[in-house]
């Protein structure tokens, strides 16, 4: 191991580089641990999948029978529109709460803070049961019997929306705070109206920070709506429960619900990818 | 020549900190005023009171004969509603140290935003004007790029085009080259120099002494919330009368 240059007087150390360092081949490190881990995980995965498929107790034929039955599809439909309604109303209310929290008005700020504190503190199940039994507190509202007003589906929408709004408020507020204050100042200096500053400048930039957690919430809400089965709203879960209370085929019918929830969640995840891309405009690195 | 900006005994505090301690300044139409001063002396705050991004506590600012942010009724000043202030701001261009371009809009969208939404110009006409302005700052080929795809110097030139799109009577620059790499400073100063040659009224806060000497009609030196000294560049920069001015110049030169 000698140096290639005659100028070097010191004895060559192993790390001394020859002149043509670019001709030295590079041998990648062997990642033995990674390969073993991957193999172990794949084996375990394969075992679980075959066990699920081969266990007759899953009764996949029953799953297939009920998968697209009328009552299951009706339940799925209710789950879907309930999710959509709760998401839209929840984010509408949440955006107002976020705006109130960020406003200069101390009363609005305090009320918004209090709302979020309260509705994040009450478990959604407790809230649903409270609304469901509100007739005990107010037997008559607006001249009608309260039980006629607070039908199970109305209770579901009210309860889930109020719950959702508390979380949406924080998500929207975080998004708005992520926008550089200078953006608003630049817009003010250009004479843009308050409305225009909000819709054209702040909100589109806030969306980048809002969309990922909002996508999370959407998927959470989709599955979270299954809680309304406790007040006998016929969503996807309640529909399969109705069947298995009759036929005692509990596992296969729960699988029907599980697969449907998974399918819808997958579709939503793909949608989220495209929405995120839409709001990432202009964020590319410098050329 | 007529007076474009008239600042009368402007005071401004942030909490207990008095940042402007009675500023009087007048700027004639078509002239360039360069404001110098150490960090924290209130230069940015003064500039921001001129387009009412900052409210004054006492005193008044008028631009082209119009009181900014207030209306005088008898011997009182009434705060104007935001709508009116926004209209006044469209006559005053502001260029920020950190550009503050809208990152989610393309260059040309950045430039047409204010003419379309604040001045209600037809979009097509605004786009045509914007392209002409971009050509003027040497960025015709970047019209459809996003700000992040441009160098700092290019971004600042877009910001200048964006301010010019409102055809302002007055341009305010707050350290337009301080955020730039040294080799990009020249291209931005060239644009400002060009505007000066065409008789645009400007107030420029900067630390570029060479630029001040060359372009300024008046140099204003601020320290500690007051104007310490003002006059033609030959006097303030080369033969300052005040000790504080001398001390500052010896540090930056
Ligand atoms: N919004 C604000 N709230 C509280 N203090 C502020 C605010 N804006 C400015 N200040 C303070 O006012 C003083 C003057 O600030 P200003 O930005 O006007 O100085 P400057 O001369 O522009 O300095 P620089 O050369 O560093 O930009 C500083 O001490 C600053 O900390
Ligand atoms: Mg400053």
From TrEMBL, chain A:
<keyword id="KW-1133">Transmembrane helix</keyword>
<dbReference type="Pfam" id="PF00528">
    <property type="entry name" value="BPD_transp_1"/>
</dbReference>
<keyword id="KW-0472">Membrane</keyword>
<keyword id="KW-1003">Cell membrane</keyword>
<feature type="transmembrane region" description="Helical">
    <location>
        <begin position="32"/>
        <end position="54"/>
    </location>
</feature>
<feature type="transmembrane region" description="Helical">
    <location>
        <begin position="226"/>
        <end position="244"/>
    </location>
</feature>
<dbReference type="InterPro" id="IPR035906">
    <property type="entry name" value="MetI-like_sf"/>
</dbReference>
<dbReference type="InterPro" id="IPR000515">
    <property type="entry name" value="MetI-like"/>
</dbReference>
<feature type="transmembrane region" description="Helical">
    <location>
        <begin position="250"/>
        <end position="271"/>
    </location>
</feature>
<feature type="transmembrane region" description="Helical">
    <location>
        <begin position="75"/>
        <end position="100"/>
    </location>
</feature>
<dbReference type="GO" id="GO:0043190">
    <property type="term" value="C:ATP-binding cassette (ABC) transporter complex"/>
</dbReference>
<dbReference type="GO" id="GO:0006865">
    <property type="term" value="P:amino acid transport"/>
</dbReference>
<keyword id="KW-0813">Transport</keyword>
<protein>
    <submittedName>
        <fullName>Amino acid ABC transporter permease</fullName>
    </submittedName>
</protein>
<dbReference type="InterPro" id="IPR010065">
    <property type="entry name" value="AA_ABC_transptr_permease_3TM"/>
</dbReference>
<comment type="similarity">
    <text>Belongs to the binding-protein-dependent transport system permease family.</text>
</comment>
<feature type="transmembrane region" description="Helical">
    <location>
        <begin position="112"/>
        <end position="132"/>
    </location>
</feature>
<keyword id="KW-0812">Transmembrane</keyword>
<dbReference type="InterPro" id="IPR043429">
    <property type="entry name" value="ArtM/GltK/GlnP/TcyL/YhdX-like"/>
</dbReference>
<dbReference type="GO" id="GO:0022857">
    <property type="term" value="F:transmembrane transporter activity"/>
</dbReference>
<keyword id="KW-0029">Amino-acid transport</keyword>
<feature type="domain" description="ABC transmembrane type-1">
    <location>
        <begin position="76"/>
        <end position="269"/>
    </location>
</feature>
TrEMBL record, chain B:
<keyword id="KW-0813">Transport</keyword>
<dbReference type="InterPro" id="IPR017871">
    <property type="entry name" value="ABC_transporter-like_CS"/>
</dbReference>
<dbReference type="GO" id="GO:0005524">
    <property type="term" value="F:ATP binding"/>
</dbReference>
<keyword id="KW-0067">ATP-binding</keyword>
<dbReference type="InterPro" id="IPR003593">
    <property type="entry name" value="AAA+_ATPase"/>
</dbReference>
<keyword id="KW-1003">Cell membrane</keyword>
<keyword id="KW-0472">Membrane</keyword>
<dbReference type="Pfam" id="PF00005">
    <property type="entry name" value="ABC_tran"/>
</dbReference>
<dbReference type="InterPro" id="IPR003439">
    <property type="entry name" value="ABC_transporter-like_ATP-bd"/>
</dbReference>
<dbReference type="InterPro" id="IPR027417">
    <property type="entry name" value="P-loop_NTPase"/>
</dbReference>
<dbReference type="GO" id="GO:0015426">
    <property type="term" value="F:ATPase-coupled polar amino acid-transporter activity"/>
</dbReference>
<feature type="domain" description="ABC transporter">
    <location>
        <begin position="5"/>
        <end position="249"/>
    </location>
</feature>
<dbReference type="InterPro" id="IPR030679">
    <property type="entry name" value="ABC_ATPase_HisP-typ"/>
</dbReference>
<dbReference type="GO" id="GO:0016887">
    <property type="term" value="F:ATP hydrolysis activity"/>
</dbReference>
<dbReference type="InterPro" id="IPR050086">
    <property type="entry name" value="MetN_ABC_transporter-like"/>
</dbReference>
<keyword id="KW-0547">Nucleotide-binding</keyword>
<dbReference type="GO" id="GO:0005886">
    <property type="term" value="C:plasma membrane"/>
</dbReference>
<protein>
    <recommendedName>
        <fullName>ABC-type polar-amino-acid transporter</fullName>
        <ecNumber>7.4.2.1</ecNumber>
    </recommendedName>
</protein>
């Amino acid at each position: 191991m000698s140096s290639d240059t005659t100028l070097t007087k010191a004895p060559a150390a192993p790390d001394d580089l020859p002149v043509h360092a670019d001709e030295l081949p590079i041998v990648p490190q062997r990642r033995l641990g990674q390969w073993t881990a991957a193999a172990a995980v794949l084996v375990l995965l394969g075992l679980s999948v075959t066990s699920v498929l081969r266990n007759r107790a899953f009764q996949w034929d029953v799953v297939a029978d009920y998968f697209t039955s009328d009552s299951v599809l009706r339940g799925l439909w209710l789950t879907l529109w309930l999710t959509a309604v709760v998401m839209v109303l929840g984010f509408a209310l949440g955006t107002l709460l976020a705006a109130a929290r960020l406003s200069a008005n101390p009363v609005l700020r305090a009320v918004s803070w209090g709302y979020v504190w309260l509705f994040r503190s009450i478990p959604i199940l407790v809230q649903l049961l409270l609304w469901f039994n509100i007739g005990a507190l107010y037997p008559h509202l607006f001249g009608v019997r309260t039980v006629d007003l607070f039908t199970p589906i109305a209770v579901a929408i009210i309860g889930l929306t109020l719950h959702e709004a508390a979380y949406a408020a924080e998500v929207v507020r975080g998004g708005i705070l992520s926008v550089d204050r200078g953006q608003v100042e630049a817009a003010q200096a250009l004479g843009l109206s308050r409305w225009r500053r909000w819709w054209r400048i702040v909100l589109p930039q806030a969306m980048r920070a809002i969309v990922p957690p909002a996508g999370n919430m959407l998927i959470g809400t989709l599955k979270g709506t299954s809680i309304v089965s406790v007040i006998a709203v016929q969503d996807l879960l309640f529909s399969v429960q109705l069947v298995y209370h009759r036929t005692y085929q509990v596992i296969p019918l729960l699988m029907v619900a599980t697969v449907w929830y998974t399918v819808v969640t997958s579709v939503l995840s793909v949608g989220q990818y495209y929405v995120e891309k839409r709001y990432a405009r202009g964020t590319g690195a410098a050329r | 020549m007529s007076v474009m900006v008239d600042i009368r005994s402007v005071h401004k505090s942030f909490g207990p900190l008095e940042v402007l301690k009675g500023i009087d300044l007048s700027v004639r139409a078509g002239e360039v005023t360069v404001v110098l001063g150490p960090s924290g002396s209130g230069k940015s705050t003064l500039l921001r009171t001129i387009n009412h991004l900052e409210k004054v506590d006492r005193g008044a600012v008028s631009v082209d004969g119009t009181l900014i942010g207030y209306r005088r009724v008898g011997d009182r000043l009434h705060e104007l509603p935001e709508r009116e202030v926004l209209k006044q701001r469209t006559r005053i261009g502001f260029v920020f140290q950190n550009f503050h371009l809208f990152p989610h809009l393309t260059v040309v969208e950045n430039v047409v935003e204010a003419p379309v939404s604040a001045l209600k110009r037809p979009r097509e006409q605004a786009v045509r004007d914007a392209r002409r302005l971009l050509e003027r700052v040497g960025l015709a080929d970047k019209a459809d790029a996003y700000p992040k795809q441009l160098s700092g110097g290019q971004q600042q030139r877009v910001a200048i085009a964006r301010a010019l799109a409102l055809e302002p009577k007055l341009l305010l620059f707050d350290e337009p080259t301080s955020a730039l790499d040294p080799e990009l400073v020249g291209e931005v100063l060239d644009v400002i120099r060009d505007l000066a040659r065409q008789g645009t009224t400007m107030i420029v806060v900067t630390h570029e002494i060479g630029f001040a000497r060359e372009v300024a009609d008046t140099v204003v030196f601020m320290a500690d919330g007051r104007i310490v000294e003002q006059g033609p560049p030959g006097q303030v920069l080369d033969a300052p009368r005040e000790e504080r001015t001398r001390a500052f110049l010896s540090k930056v030169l």
